[in-house]
């Protein structure tokens, strides 16, 4: 991909935009770009520099992304809406052509890495709740204030706030922002290597701190989570390459497979509620470590049909009108609204799944599925909006902790309820 029309090869220390940004290390890459940690000599901050491939279609895609990100930044001057901020953009001419570059605020690991780091065990529900709140604030802003659909919401596209501050790193303090030239990076003991190792170690620690396992009832081998207190999990929605204005959707097939809404599969038209579907899939994955729907095709049915079957096994039968109402309905459903090639479905509702497979307590399972299930309504217009979700009791929850302090000779606290605006102690002498 490092050829004409493709990625731009970057060396540590390379200057961009007339020397304003200095490349520090690679943060990630995607189909369209490589993303670099860079030092902004003007603001003395670290930023993420997204360097797009240079071919025309990639440049056009970048210009669209810049337009969307500019609207996002303009509508949120205080930068509080849990959506990544565009700081600057420019073109960079290199041996492979002209590359559109976006300068974004520097964020941390994705939720996918967080899930992986946690060995696909699922995060503590309190953390899931906090992450969900951030995503909902972002979606509510995009949907209601901007009229924008993300269309590719998934754990990979939600980044945690960086807990690493390269500027405050003791190894780096006082050092020039140009950490090293590429040659020195090859030596085992170069400054860059030491800093990189340190940054990696810190990143690992930070992720370890905020992950942690869900406490379960009964005799499982799972350990209760540590470090529950004092870690404010915050995150932001990123990757607006596929975002579109609700008024002018441009693609028929949107969303990453596992997070795709049924109306997209059936080609029945879509709107904001597709993001709510993906959001609910993401919330489930955070809480359990497993993708909710992971369809596979076979010799007798296609991936789409398996996907719809998995949905109906969890959510019940799709109303006939909806099943038969899309441009692709005839390929998949008969006129009664039954799938053509997958006839026998095993119903396993959400709250049972959470208890039986994921060992949630009955209470946790009920509360979480009360929150999630309405988001999986087959009728898109019936799904709650991000704004409505933010009002839901599960999001604004009262965390109940039963504490028994009998043996310490103090009062027996039966129930400690910590709400957003209230703190109740029900104590018994
Ligand atoms: P895709 O194929 O997913 O559309 P893309 O080329 O549009 O990829 P992004 O998904 O925006 O690129 O970014 C690629 C990776 O770079 C991300 O997965 C993430 O690891 C990293 N990254 C992107 N933006 C930031 C940021 N603001 N701060 C830190 N890392 C980032
Ligand atoms: Mg991406
Ligand atoms: Mg993208």
| Main sheet strand line-up | 1-2-3-4-6-5
Strand content of the residues, in percent?
15-25%
**Helix content range:** 25-40%
Low-confidence spans: 169-196, 206-230, 417-429
Number of helices: 13
Please state the structural category: alpha+beta
Radius of gyration: 24 Å
> Distance N terminus to C terminus?
71 Å
Global geometry: globular
Heterogens: adenosine-5'-triphosphate, magnesium ion
Question: Mean of the pLDDT scores?
Answer: 84
Q: N-to-C SSE series? A: EEEEHEEHHEEHHEEHHHHHHHHEEE
What is the count of β-strands? 13
Description:
This protein has 429 residues and is an alpha+beta fold. Helices cover 32% and strands 17% of the residues. The chain is built from 13 helices and 13 strands. It has a 6-stranded antiparallel beta sheet, covered by helices on one side. The longest helix has 22 residues, at 125-146. It is globular, with a radius of gyration of 24 Å.
Secondary structure elements and pairings:
Elements: E1 15-16, E2 21-29, E3 33-40, E4 45-52, H1 56-74, E5 86-94, E6 97-105, H2 111-117, H3 125-146, E7 148-149, E8 158-160, H4 182-185, H5 191-210, E9 235-237, E10 244-245, H6 262-266, H7 273-288, H8 303-315, H9 320-323, H10 329-332, H11 350-356, H12 362-372, H13 386-391, E11 399-401, E12 412-418, E13 423-428
Antiparallel strand pairs: 1-2, 2-3, 3-4, 4-6, 5-6, 7-10, 8-9, 11-12, 12-13
Bound molecules: adenosine-5'-triphosphate and magnesium ion (2 copies).
One magnesium ion (MG) is lined by residues 30, 32, 239, 241.
